[in-house]
Each structure stands twice: as structure tokens, then as C-alpha cells.
Amino acid sequence: MKPSRKIPLNALRAFEATARLMSFTKAGEELGMTQTAISYQIRLLEDQLGEPLFLRRPRHLALSDAGAKLHPKIAQAFALIDEAVAGVETQSRSALVIHTNATFASRWLAAHIGTFQLEHPEIAVRLELSNDLVDFSASDADVAIRAGRGQWPGLTSHFVMKGHFTPMLSPALAATIGGVHEPADLLKLRIIDPGDPWWRMWFTAAGLPDADLDSRARSRMGAQVFEAAAAIAGQGVGILNPDFYADDVALGRLIQPFDLIEDSGYHYWFVYPESRANVPKIRAFRAFMRKAMPSFRD
Q1: What is the CATH number of domain 164-263?
Q2: Which CATH superfamily includes the segment(s) 94-151+275-292?
Q3: DSSP-assigned beta bridge partners for residue 97
Q4: HSE of 233 in the Cβ direction (CA atoms, 13 Å)?
Q5: Euclidean distance between CA atoms 115 and 125, whole angstroms
Q6: pLDDT at residue 5 above 80?
Q7: Helix 280-292 × helix 110-119 angle, to 10°
Q8: Which of 211, 210, 209, 166 is nearest to 188 (CA)?
Q9: Other CB atoms closer than 10 Å to residue 158's CB: what's the count?
Q10: pLDDT tens digits along 109-135
């Protein structure tokens, strides 16, 4: 017998249906094939195996010893395949996997995803959090919110919001030096993550290109949302995207001492594979983003 990997799957499917229904005609009707095609596939399988699988008698079909031995295992194998495919189809229809970073997830998605699920109770949502760019071909992710310039081969990109930044701090911390009145006043305070290139860009735009940042103790927190939490707690001055923290400013937890806002050139984008643009759950979330995010652009 030749290795099983050489046996056509169609021939095995034709054999399983015929053995279960004990009829070439009924097997053909189930599989959408003619009786002749079913008979041909089974002959092909018998030739490959070197054994007859059926005893063909007038108006009667029976399994041979080889066929009776083979059928339960083939039936089990197809049952496992059907179960696996059904599981993937169910997940594909009902679970939306969103890949994004911790800052966008906590500062925007957390406040809006409940509304999406109320509008679409049939769609479960799962978040994958990482600063890395997701590889859709190697991940369960359906869509992603990522920072960049919006051009990735094979992906459709929609602009979500600007990736700009400015210093922000707690009013209590500002009060310790009598208030922050000019950019140089910030240098009297602890800078959260002075190694962040945004700081150098902002101080240069503010007229202080030689601001001493290199000699300061480094503290890298891994996500802007953690830096913002430290700033709210009075632990230092954070360089933050003000669009994420308007509520904290309104509630008096943070202040934005200067109108100067710099643009990183890396904005937030809603992305997904071009080939999946019309998947219902992706289409539903895209429509929701368009409605819920005023800056959303196609």
C-alpha cells in the first residue's frame, strides 16, 4: 500500500459517505456528485489500497473485511475535521480579536467597547495588548489599532487620531515650585522618562534645544498610560498625548501648562488585512469606530 498522504481526500470522503449510507446514489446526493463520480473515487481508493472495500452484489452493497475495518477510523477522522472547522467558523463569526497597545486600550477602548457590545451582543471581544506590530498571518487578531505612518503592505488603514504630545503634570506638583510659567520651569522638576525622544523634540520646539536631559535618572515604564498615572500621582512631568487625558484635565488631576503640542509623525490607525474587509464582525467594528471616533477617516 502507498503512504496514506498520497490518497486523495475526495476518495476518502466518497468512501465514508457510501459506507455510512450503503448507497452510491445517496452518497452522491449528499456530496453533490454523480453516482458515477462516487464509484470512480472508490475505485481509485481501492486501487491505491490494493484491497476491495465493498462487495458489489445485485441490488445490494456490503462492506468487505477491509472496508469494515477502515470505515470507523475514516468516519472518526472526518468527524474531527468537521468539529475543528466548525469551531473555527464559530469563533470567526462571534469573536472579534483586537490587537492594540495598553495606552489606547485603557484610554479609549475601555470607555467605548461596552457600547459596541451592547449594539452587537452576538460579537464577543478579546483584546491582545502589545507594543509590537501584529503579524495577522501568525495571530488570531482580526483588527489592530497601531501607531505608524499608515502604510503597511496588504493592510487597509483608517486614520484614527494624531500621535502628538506635550508635557502634563499634576497641579500639586506644579505648586511645589510656585507654578509652571515657562518651559524652563519643567527642568526644576522630575522628568518621567527623560530618555523618551519626545522630550528632546518638545524642548527644541520650545526654544531649549540644550535642555539637560541626559544626566537625569532614567525611568522607562513601557507604556504612556503608566507614565500618565505617575504624573497624576505627582511623581513627575509626563510627555503625553493630550487627547487621551482631557477628562483628567477637566477633573483637575492634570494640567497642560503650555499650548505647544508637537507632532510625532506616528499616528494611530485602525488596520486589518485587505482580504478581510467584508467580514461581518470587522465591518461592524469599523462602522462603530467611524461613529464613535470623530477624527476617524477612511
Answers
A1: 3.40.190.10
A2: Periplasmic binding protein-like II (3.40.190.10)
A3: 126
A4: 8
A5: 12
A6: no
A7: 130
A8: 211
A9: 19
A10: 999 999 999 999 999 999 999 989 999
